[in-house]
Amino acid sequence: MLQANERVERAGLIEVNGRAYNLSDLAARPVAVVCVDGCEFDYLEAAAAAGVAPFIARLLSGSDATAVRADCVMPSFTNPNNLSIVCGVPPAVHGICGNYFWDPRANDGQGAEVMMNDPAYLRAGTLLAAAAGGGARVAVVTAKDKLRRLLGWQLKGICFSAEKPDCATLAENGIEDARVLTGLPVPDVYSAELSAFVFAAGVRLAERGDVDLMYLSTTDYVQHKCAPGSEGANAFYAMMDRYLARLDALGWTIGLTADHGMNAKHDPRTGEPNVVYLQDVLDAWLGAQRSRVVLPITDPYVVHHGALGSFATVHLTDAAQPADSTLIERTMAHVAGIDGIELVLDNAQACARFELMPERTGDIVVVSRRDFAIGSRRAAHDLSGLTVPLRSHGGLSEQTVPLVFNRRVDDIETLYGGRRLRNFDVFDIALNHARQS
């Protein structure tokens, strides 16, 4: 059940989930935070070096901008990171620990694997809703509709997806038929045009003067398909560069980050996916029906990754009773010996290290190596949509993401007592610490 924001408003300040944000300058200096799905720093550097992204090159130069590396939250998937960014806190606080999880309360208490895209799973309010309540004019444009309800929870403003702009209504989305913003056709969900629609809509809202605080969230379709520096990747970042430059010219402060990075998960010689089919392994070792492997990468859009990522949780069962510590330890040791596995933790270790919610995390957490993905049963994965060798995310190797601003941020590395910067610091930095001159 969603807890009410503890929010105080004074002199343009709001407090959300223990962090204070200054909204007093938004009318004169609007702010846009952009989450570029699947964006490794290498993509930005490659596009800048190729000369196709001059604005991004300026941001990376550091002369009148700031560009550093930060960490996303684990698992390095879309839902937990987008919600961390808009809540300003890790999953242990807001509760969204993956795209997909085992909910023991679902199915009349029998339990079921479910999508974590219902606001009922949120345990904290968002900065976006709080800012709108504090008088800011807020807009959210997200690529996929799966995120819209979470990002727009309790938001009195504009919130729609590029996937379904034609379905937008004033009552539900704060805008009628969002296609009119851009004049663009409704894009295919598996296309670069889905992200282009997000940017086009955001720029148009800025040009119309309708909003002064925006969150734009793209899709990683291109990053799953194209490595940094490739023709497809550079074309995507050239498109993004043009829209970011337009926002900058309109006087907006821009904070750019990512929900996760992206890496090749295939054999470079053959192009075949490197996959540990963990449910097959555990069925052979423990016996059938003794374990349940849950893949938090799972969502309605699996064509470009086949539901293969680098993070899995394992729920162990023993005659319908909770698994004992001996079974957990034996299973952890067995899984740790599999080629391609980087890290195996129990529930307490994983929740402490990755700031996750224990009741939404399995008995065991498994993270694969940079070049490997984790599946459940081989027969359960349809890889027919993989038209290029597998690239995916979810592990520690995809945790480093950009944190880039079109303003100077003094001593950014020491802002939080020297701790590692996180992608969910982006709103705090853009609103509270970015120079406005």
Query: How do the strands line up in the largest sheet?
Result: 5-21-11-4-10-8-9
Mean pLDDT over the residues: 92
Q: Please give the radius of gyration in angstroms.
A: 21 Å
Query: Under CATH, the topology of the largest domain is which?
Result: Alkaline Phosphatase, subunit A
CATH H level of the largest domain: which superfamily?
Alkaline Phosphatase, subunit A
Structural class category: alpha/beta
Strand elements, count: 21
Question: Can you tell me the CATH class of the largest domain?
Answer: Alpha Beta
Distance between the termini: 43 Å
Shape: globular
Largest sheet properties:
7 strands, mixed
> What is the number of domains?
2
Summary of the model, kept short:
This protein has helices spanning 41-49, 54-61, 78-87, 91-94, 127-133, 145-151, 170-173, 179-182, 193-208, 221-225, 231-249, 278-286, 325-336, 347-354, 426-432; strands at 9-10, 13-16, 19-22, 31-35, 66-71, 100-103, 112-115, 138-142, 158-161, 213-217, 253-257, 263-264, 275-277, 291-294, 311-318, 321-322, 341-346, 364-368, 373-375, 391-392, 400-405. It has 437 residues and is α/β, with parallel strands linked by helices.
